[in-house]
Design a protein that fits this description.
Strand content of chain A: under 5%
Shape of chain A: globular
Order of helices and strands of chain B: EEEHEEHEHHHEHEHEEHH
Order of helices and strands of chain A: HHHHHHHHHHHHHHH
Structural class of chain A: mainly alpha
Strand order of the largest sheet of chain B: 6-7-8-3-9-10
Number of strands of chain A: 0
Helix content of chain B: 25-40%
Strand content of chain B: 25-35%
Largest sheet of chain B: 6 strands, mixed
Oligomer: heterodimer
Structural class of chain B: alpha/beta
Shape of chain B: globular
CATH architecture of one domain in chain A: Orthogonal Bundle
Bound molecules: adenosine-5'-diphosphate, magnesium ion
Largest sheet of chain A: none
Largest interface: A-B, 22 and 27 residues
Number of strands of chain B: 10
CATH superfamily of one domain in chain A: MetI-like
CATH class of one domain in chain A: Mainly Alpha
Radius of gyration of chain B: 18 Å
C-alpha cells in the first residue's frame, strides 16, 4: 500500500551517513533502468534548458508593443503585461477588478482553511458560508454601494474557481446519496442510482453542459430563464455527482460488514449508522481520490466555453484574438498553464499529505 | 421454567436459498439465565443468536424478546436491539473513534443521554472490564483481549438486559482468552442474561445454567452442564464432546 511507501520516504532523510553521492546513488542510480532514465533526462535538460532561457529571458521583450516583440524574437512578456487583467478577470468592469481579486483570495482562503484537519467538523459550514458568501458578494455586488455585476460579465479565474468549488460542494451531497443508494438494500433505490450514475458516466461533460444550457430552458415555463452560470453549475454538479458517487462507493465497500453489524446491534438507525460509523471511515479512505476528482473537475470547467462562458482558458484564447496582439500563444498558454499548475499541484500535494496522515490514523 | 421467559424461540426456521440453516429451533431463556451454545462449525450457532437481534432474519416461527415479537415492524426491531447487547468474534470496534467514543456513541445517539452522563457511565464500565486507563486510545492501539473487553463495555453502556456473545475468544491469542472469560464470568455473576456461543468448555461447565448443543441447524440436546458433560444423551453430542475435550 502507498502508506508504507510514504513512511519510507519520510524515514529516508533521517538516515545518517548520507552525503550527496550516497543520495544520488539511492535516488538516481538505484537500478540500471533508473540510471538510464536519469541520464536520458539529464541529456534532454542539457539540450532544452539553454533554448528555454534564451527564449524566456535573453531574447525576451518586456515592454512595448507587438512589433517590438516580433523584433526581439523571444518571449513577449509585454503581451502579458497588457493582457493579464483581461485573462484573469475577463470582462468584469476594469475599475472594479479589486472585487474579483478579493473573491479569488476569499475562495482560496476558504480552501486553505478547510485543508486544515483541525477545522473538520461543524466549523466548516460556517467557514464556507462566510468565505463563499463573501466571494458571491464581491462578484455580484448590488448592495453596500457596490455596483451590480451580472454574471454575463464574469470570466477568467474567479469564474473557473467558482464553477469548480461550488460545483464540487453542491455535487458532494448528491454524490454521497447516490453512493448510499447504490449500496442500499432497497432494489428501487439501487436501480435508480445505478441508472443515474451509469448514464452520466457514459456521457461526456460537454454534452451535459449543452443539455443544461439548451434543454433546461425548454422545461421551464415561458418567460422564466435561468442564469447561464447557474446552468453551467447545474450541469457540472449533476456530472461530478456521478463520479463522486463512484469514488464514495469504493470507500463504502471497503468498510468491513462487522462495522454495520456492530452499529445495528447497538441500536443505531440507518442514517445514524451511515453518518456516525460508515461515512466517516469511508470518506477518510477516499479523500485522496476525491481531491483528485476535484483536480479533474477544476480542469474540466474549461469546457464551459461551449455554452459561451469565458473561464480562465477561454479568456486567454479571447486575449489572443486582439488584432494588435495576434500570435502570442506560447505566452498566453504558459500564463494560464502556470496558474492551473499552481492549483493542481497544490491540490495533489495536499492529497498526498492526506493519504499519509489519514493512513497513520488508520494504523493507530 | 419457573420464571417467565425473556427470550422465546418457537419453531424458528431459516433458509439460505435452498440451504436449511435453522430447523425448528425451540429455546426458552429465563431472565438471568446463562446459556452456552456449542456445536460443530457451520451448525447454525451464530445464525441462531444473530436472529435474536435481527442481524439475520428468520423465515418461519416466532422469536419473542421481552414480550416483543421480532417481525417486520421496525420499531420492534429497534426496541429489541436497544435492549440486547452483542459481542462479536472480531470485536468490531469502530476504529475511527477512541475507546471512550466507542462507548458513549450509542447511549448518546440512541438513548439521547447527555455526554457527561454517558462518559461517566462509560468510564465506570471500562473500570469494570479492567481497562480504565485506555479510554482515550484508539482500538488499533490495544491488544485483542483489551479490544474485546472494550467491546463488552461498549455493549454494556446501553444497559442491556440480554447479552449475546458469538465466539468472543476465538480470535484471541491464547494468553488473552482468560482476561476476557474473567470479565464474562463477572458479568454472569452479576445476574445478566447471557447467550454465549463458545468452544470454551471450562467456561461452560463453570458458568452455564444450561448448555445447548447444535448440529446441522438443529438443537440436539439441552442440559445443565454437569449432566451435559458427564452423561450426554445423544450420540452426536458424545461424538462432539469426544472431539473438543480430547485436546
Ligand atoms: N449469508 C450466508 N449465505 C449463505 N450461507 C450462509 C450464510 N451465512 C452462513 N451460512 C451458512 O449457514 C451455516 C450456519 O452458519 P453459522 O450460523 O455461521 O454457523 P456456526 O456459527 O455454527 O459456525 C453454515 O453452513 C454457513 O456456511
Ligand atoms: Mg459462528
Amino acid at each position: 500500500m502507498s502508506v508504507t511507501e510514504t513512511t519510507q520516504e519520510r524515514a529516508a532523510p533521517i538516515r545518517p551517513n548520507q552525503g550527496p553521492v550516497a543520495w544520488a546513488r539511492a535516488n538516481l542510480f538505484s537500478t540500471w533502468y533508473n540510471a538510464l532514465l536519469t541520464l536520458l533526462i539529464a541529456y534532454v535538460l542539457v539540450r532544452a534548458v539553454p533554448g528555454i532561457i534564451d527564449w524566456a529571458l535573453v531574447k525576451a521583450n518586456w515592454t512595448g508593443d507587438a512589433a517590438a516583440c516580433r523584433e526581439a524574437g523571444g518571449a513577449c512578456w509585454a503581451f502579458l503585461a497588457e493582457k493579464w487583467r483581461f485573462i484573469l478577470f475577463g470582462t468584469f468592469p476594469d475599475d472594479q477588478h479589486w472585487r474579483p481579486t478579493l473573491a479569488i483570495l476569499s475562495m482560496i482562503g476558504t480552501l486553505v482553511i478547510s485543508a486544515d484537519r483541525r477545522f473538520w467538523g461543524r466549523a466548516l459550514i460556517y467557514i464556507w458560508t462566510v468565505g463563499i458568501g463573501f466571494s458571491a458578494l464581491m462578484m455580484f455586488g448590488g448592495v453596500l454601494g457596490l455596483d451590480y455585476v451580472p454574471t454575463e460579465l464574469w470570466g477568467g479565474l474567479p469564474l473557473t474557481l467558482a464553477l469548480s468549488i461550488v460545483g464540487l460542494v453542491a455535487s458532494f451531497p448528491l454524490g454521497v446519496l447516490l453512493a448510499l443508494g447504490r449500496t442500499s438494500d432497497l432494489p428501487v433505490m439501487r436501480g435508480l442510482s445505478v441508472v443515474y450514475i451509469e448514464l452520466v458516466r457514459g456521457v461526456p461533460l460537454i454534452s451535459i453542459l449543452f443539455m443544461a444550457s439548451v434543454m433546461l430552458p425548454l422545461f421551464l415555463p415561458a418567460g422564466v430563464s435561468i442564469d447561464k452560470v447557474l446552468r453551467a453549475l447545474i450541469g457540472i454538479c449533476l456530472f461530478s455527482a456521478a463520479y463522486v458517487a463512484e469514488v464514495v462507493r469504493a470507500g463504502l465497500q471497503a468498510i468491513p460488514k462487522g462495522q454495520v453489524e456492530a452499529a445495528k446491534a447497538l441500536g443505531l438507525g440507518y442514517w445514524q449508522r451511515q453518518r456516525l460509523i460508515i461515512l466517516p471511515q469511508a470518506l477518510s479512505l477516499v479523500i485522496p481520490p476525491l481531491v483528485n476528482s476535484f483536480i479533474a473537475s477544476f480542469k474540466d470547467t474549461s469546457l464551459v466555453i461551449v455554452i459561451g462562458l469565458l473561464d480562465l482558458l477561454s479568456t486567454a484564447k479571447a486575449a489572443l484574438t486582439d488584432p494588435a496582439w495576434r500570435g502570442f500563444y506560447k505566452e498566453a498558454y504558459l500564463f494560464v498553464g502556470v496558474i492551473y499548475l499552481l492549483f493542481c499541484y497544490a491540490l495533489s500535494r495536499y492529497s498526498r499529505y492526506l493519504e499519509t496522515v489519514l493512513g497513520q490514523g488508520r494504523r493507530r | 421454567m419457573t420464571t417467565e421467559a425473556i427470550i422465546e424461540l418457537r419453531g424458528v426456521n431459516k433458509w439460505y436459498g435452498a440451504f436449511h440453516v435453522l430447523r425448528d429451533v425451540n429455546l426458552s431463556v429465563a431472565k438471568g439465565e446463562r446459556i452456552v451454545i456449542c456445536g460443530p462449525s457451520g451448525s447454525g450457532k451464530s445464525t441462531t443468536i444473530r436472529c435474536i437481534n435481527r442481524l439475520e432474519e428468520h423465515q418461519a416461527g416466532d422469536i419473542i424478546v421481552k414480550g416483543v415479537p421480532l417481525d417486520d415492524d421496525v420499531r420492534h426491531v429497534e426496541s429489541i436491539r436497544r435492549d440486547v447487547g452483542m459481542v462479536f468474534q472480531q470485536f468490531n470496534l469502530f476504529p475511527h473513534l477512541t475507546v471512550l467514543e466507542n462507548c458513549v456513541l450509542a447511549p448518546m445517539w440512541v438513548k439521547k443521554m447527555p455526554r457527561a452522563e454517558a462518559e461517566a457511565k462509560a468510564r465506570q464500565l471500562l473500570e469494570r472490564v479492567r481497562i480504565p486507563d485506555q479510554a482515550l486510545k484508539y482500538p488499533g492501539q490495544l491488544s485483542g483481549g483489551q479490544q474485546q473487553r472494550v467491546a463488552i463495555a461498549r455493549a454494556l453502556c446501553m444497559d442491556p438486559s440480554i447479552m449475546l456473545f458469538d465466539e468472543p475468544t476465538s480470535a484471541l491469542d491464547p494468553e488473552m482468552v482468560k482476561e476476557v472469560l474473567d470479565v464474562m464470568s463477572d458479568l454472569a455473576a452479576s445476574g445478566m442474561t447471557m447467550l454465549v456461543v463458545t468452544h470454551e468448555m471450562g467456561f461452560a461447565r463453570r458458568m452455564a445454567d444450561r448448555v445447548v448443543f447444535m448440529d446441522k441447524g438443529e438443537i440436539v440436546e439441552v442440559a445443565p452442564p454437569d449432566q451435559f458433560f458427564d452423561t450426554p444423551q445423544s450420540d452426536r453430542t458424545k461424538a462432539f464432546l469426544g472431539q473438543v475435550l480430547s485436546h
